[in-house]
Amino acid sequence: MSSQVSVNQGYNSQLPGSYPHLIPAKTLNPVSGQSNYGGSQTVSPLSNYQGPGQTLYRPPAASNPVTSSLPSVPVPRMPLPASQNPAATPMPSGSFLPGANVQPPLNWQYNYPSTGSQINHCPRSSSQPTISGNTNLTSHQYVSSGDPPLQNNLTKSGIASNTNNGSMVVHNSYDEIEGGGFLATPQYANKNPTMSRSVGYSYPSLPPGYQNTAPPSTTGMPPSSLNYSSGPQGFTQTPLGANHLTASMSGLSLHPEGLRVINLLQERNMLPSTPLQPPVPNLHEDIQKLNCNPELFRCTLTSIPQTQALLNKAKLPLGLLLHPFKDLVQLPVVTSSTIVRCRSCRTYINPFVNFLDQRRWKCNLCYRVNDVPEEFMYNPLTRVYGEPHRRPEVQNATIEFMAPSEYMLRPPQPPVYLFVFDVSHNAVETGYLNSVCQSLLDNLDLLPGNTRTKIGFITFDSTIHFYSLQEGLSQPQMLIVSDIEDVFIPMPENLLVNLNESKELVQDLLKTLPQMFTKTLETQSALGPALQAAFKLMSPTGGRMSVFQTQLPTLGVGALRPREEPNQRSSAKEIHLTPSTDFYKKLALDCSGQQVAVDLFLLSGQYSDLASLGCISRYSAGSVYYYPSYHHQQNPVQVQKLQKELQRYLTRKIGFEAVMRIRCTKGLSIHTFHGNFFVRSTDLLSLPNVNPDAGYAVQMSVEESLTDTQLVSFQSALLYTSSKGERRIRVHTLCLPVVSTLNEVFLGADVQAISGLLANMAVDRSVTASLSDARDALVNAVIDSLSAYHSSVLSSQQPGLMVPFSLRLFPLFVLALLKQKSFQTGTNARLDERIFAMCQVKNQPLVYLMLTTHPTLYRVDNLSDEGALNINDRTIPQPPILQLSVEKLSRDGAFLMDAGSVLMLWVGKNCGQNFLSQVLGVQNYALIPQTMTDLPELDTPESARIIAFISWLREQRPFFPILYVIRDDSPMKANFLQNMVEDRTESALSYYEFLLHIQQQVNK
Ligand SMILES: [Zn+2]
User: Fold this and answer.
1) pLDDT bracket for residue 169 (50, 70, 90)
2) What is the distance between the alpha carbons of residues 915 and 704, in angstroms, rounded to a whole number?
3) Which keywords annotate this record (predicted)?
4) What is the whole-number distance in angstroms between the Cα of residue 712 and the centre of ligand 1?
């Protein structure tokens, strides 16, 4: 048997050693030492370089020599559908309703396209699933509790590449290899509603609690209609038949507290003192224990409404939030010559399929009955034959497959890293090159990769500088191209070099680079041409381009003009959130087509039009990093932040040439995607790079009634090339119950996921309509859903603002969004900072988006060990979470605010001497430094506690939040207070005022 399972450690696979696309088609000029590109071209060793002025001109013999002769990658450039054509962005103005003016209520959940997102309409299957002859259904038996945990049994090595039989299947599109959605060639027939009703696992009756709540007055579907067949279904057959998915109530997760109706005007403090947990879907425990971790995959509604009409009534958005490439401690990895997938819809076999018997399984997305392949009958974990239902694929909602050759369009690409540095006068002034080059030197050996890793560097000001790092040179050579109108690549074969072979030259260059431009007077920035050059250089392989920019680009294509008007910052209307040119988006799409992702590091004190520049990352699946006012001396905190973030950036896991598809059970439809990517074909997301810190969101609708369905599933499949050159597929599957009443929909609402999805939608709305539209829509989302709850679920009108327990924090989170940098009004939001915040909303996993929006506040001057966590002999205090209001502060205390990427420790004026001396290490308040970003490690229990707590917070996330210690008279105090979202500001309501406003609208 060839199946193997391993944990996610120690990649071992063999890879094709040579990469066929790297052979340059044409060499411009053989270089030996000082080479010449015709009359006035100069190649100079770095030591001779005296600043700008040495120039390469295009060799006259070959006009356009490089571009025309690049070996082409067999990745087709997909013609852009009109809706994705960068030049064509039709959009309705002002509303989710096309062409309509903003008229409350704005219905977020309607599926009108907005161009800020990428939208598709999945083809619908018009046929019904096949039901094969045998109508006996059974639920398969889940793992017994006696089974050893998967990870303990996995072999860690020897992942054999046993699938390569010598012939490389070359497909002409990724769509084909990953497999489309519902295929156009169904052989479906024989619709059998009785059968489809029995699909999936038996769903237990609802808990008594559900029936005890106020019956819905207008939904017309009493809860009793959910009395599905509750006993064991189908035949009992050893070993599959011992059905324990019975009607037992014990596994139901909803706590009685969850059934409460709350009057927010009376119970104002609904914020739990411990971190808010996502709701647990109301599934039988045997299903739920196999379900996908909500950190990876969650839905705004953990109970899916069975019809669009019901969803419309709830006025809540339906969508998924994903963190698909998150770093995982344990990840089962399967190597098998057969990856078992539904023959019809290409779903990967998963814990929520139904085994009809040992030889057949029924797809939980399209209901097709599939055969179990012979190989799958053997379980590599138990080494038992005849247990397909115990295979790791059927026991893990999150799993990774080693992909055989049919999942490749070309041999897996090598890891390729290209760095593009702004070296204009402005850039040199900031001193950033020192930090970045040092960080690269420190982490050069930690870049994810293997013996095939390639690296290259480009610098630019008004001209573009290339660096030959060919093995054997005594030092790097700089090549200057001054023709920025029609950029060409000199010596393409020596500019991206094998890191191992040229490591010393690379190190030489990194040590020299920061000093090379110190005397430059060149103020211009030809960013656009530099990006074009970088794109050409990377086109043959794909890879990651890291661009460092410190100002508005001024020369050549992609040059931009300042357009921020400080006086208009406070206005929610006339601000420039849309790109001023489509150059960056178009180039990003070209990059995407060649498997190049562009990460932008913007370090600028001046307006740099991030709305335009950011497109280069957004559509190429890159990320944007922003360091406003970066300066190596004047802004040490930013320097520290850049260093820490670069450390993470350079060493974190990376997937190349990736695509992601999200499938859902027939009847549901995914229509709008949020995140950084390009929608390549209908619903296939193109991700030239995927990183573990990126989040995605999608919106969904109910296209066909799910009346006959008890459970629905969602599956994301991410196909990527690892830095070791393996083709892998990471699959997550989430299973949720379908419900028929409005009350159940509300009870299962996930308020964090809803807020996160609304934030994504509001960014689109800000861009396609206006900021004030987006703000109105956010407020209306609360008003509409709570009005629906009032009128359709509550049996009697009660005074106050009644909300279901699940939505008790909804008004607070929406108010927090209104005060978030993306959507706030007032004069302190600089345009680039607002755009960056919007980029973050789109690209961050939900957990960080929520921390940015509604930070957590703790009192930390009196930490105790009561209720502390004990992790590896460390005691980590767990202070209660406080409401974000100055009422919760006191001058004699110290308070820590965790806003995700930043931690702020505000120390009150009268803070106790004990804290000052035992934690801050100062004798009195006046001695707290104005800039303090570290706590001293003192030999006191107080110091140990707070340091343990802060370290623990930092360990919870992949990036490094900077700590600011803030005195009461510090200018940073304003930032701290800005996050007090429950308080009134000059331009925003307090939480209580907001509740009154909502109540007024709801009771209208
Ligand atoms: Zn299927």
Assistant:
1) very low
2) 61
3) Cytoplasmic vesicle, Protein transport, Transport
4) 12
Look up residue 196 and give its two tokens: 């489809």
Distance (angstroms) between ligand 1 centre and the Cα of 881 equals 45
* Closest among 651, 653, 625, 630 to 640, alpha carbons compared: 630
Whole-Å CA distances, 519 to 48, 459, 522, 798: 14, 15, 9, 73
Q: What's the rounded Cα separation, in Å, for the pair 514 and 551?
A: 18
* Vertex 311 angle, CA 307 and 317, to 5°: 135
Q: What residues contact 683, with CB distance under 8 A and at least 6 apart?
A: 120, 122, 181, 661, 662, 670, 673
Residues bordering ligand 1, an ion, CB closer than 5 Å? 342, 344-345, 347, 363, 365-366, 368
Measured CA to CA, the distance from residue 183 to residue 172 in angstroms comes to 17
Of 35-49, 317-331, 376-390, give the lowest mean pLDDT range. 35-49
DSSP state of 918: I
Residue count (the chain): 1004
Distance, CA 368 to ligand 1 centroid (Å)?
A: 5
Six-digit token pair at 424? Answer: 């204009």
Give the C-alpha separation, 880 to 875, whole Å.
16
Amino acid type, 810: F
667 CA → ligand 1 middle, Å: 13
Q: For residue 696, which phi and psi values (nearest 5 degrees)?
A: -140, 155
pLDDT in tens, 789-818: 999 888 777 788 999 999 999 999 999 999
- Reading the block at residue 315, the tokens are 């006025």
Contacts of 949 (CB under 8 A, 6+ apart): 858, 860, 863, 876, 877, 879, 896
Contact indicator for 831, 628 with CB cutoff of 8 Å = no
Question: Which token pair is 147?
Answer: 């089974």
Which residue, 464, 538, 531, is CA-closest to 495?
A: 538
Q: How confident is the model at residue 190 (pLDDT cuts 50, 70, 90)?
A: very low
- Let me know: does 576 contact 562? Beta carbons within 8 Å: no
Tokens 């690049």 -> residue: 70
Average pLDDT rounded to a whole number, residues 898-915: 95
Helices 771-792 and 991-1002 meet at what angle, rounded to 10? 60
730 Cα: distance to centroid of ligand 1 (angstroms): 18
> Please, are residues 555 and 525 in contact by the beta-carbon 8 Å criterion?
yes
Q: CA–CA separation, 355 vs 141, rounded Å?
A: 9
Token digits of residue 832: 């680039």
Say whether pLDDT at 163 is over 50. Answer: no
Model pLDDT for residues 958-991, shown as the tens digit of each residue: 778 999 999 999 988 999 999 999 999 888 999 9
Instruction: Say whether pTM exceeds 0.90.
Output: no
At position 310, the amino acid (one-letter code) is L
Look at the block and give the residue holding tokens 């007055």: 217
DSSP reduced 3-state for 934: coil
* Cis amide linkage into residue 879, ω under 30° from 0: no
- Structure-token pair, residue 450: 């293997």
Q: Rounded to the nearest whole angstrom, what is the distance from the C-alpha of residue 883 to the centroid of ligand 1?
A: 47
Beta-bridge partner residues of 857:
882, 897
Backbone region of residue 403 per phi and psi (left: phi > 0; alpha: psi in -120 to 50; beta: other values): beta
Q: How far is the CA of 72 from the centre of ligand 1 (A)?
A: 35
d(Cα 760, Cα 765) in Å, to the nearest integer?
Answer: 9
Tens digits of per-residue pLDDT, 564-578? Answer: 776 655 454 557 899
638, 631 Cβ separation under 8 angstroms: yes
* Helix residue ranges per DSSP H, 30-149: 65-69
Q: Which two tokens stand for residue 508?
A: 């030489």
Q: What is the DSSP letter of 621?
A: T
Summarize the confidence of residues 940-968 as an average pLDDT.
Answer: 91
384-385 vs 881-882, strand pairing mode: unpaired
3-state secondary structure of 807: helix
Residue 676 tokens read as 């950084």
517 pLDDT higher than 70: yes
Cα of 520 vs its chain's centroid, Å: 39
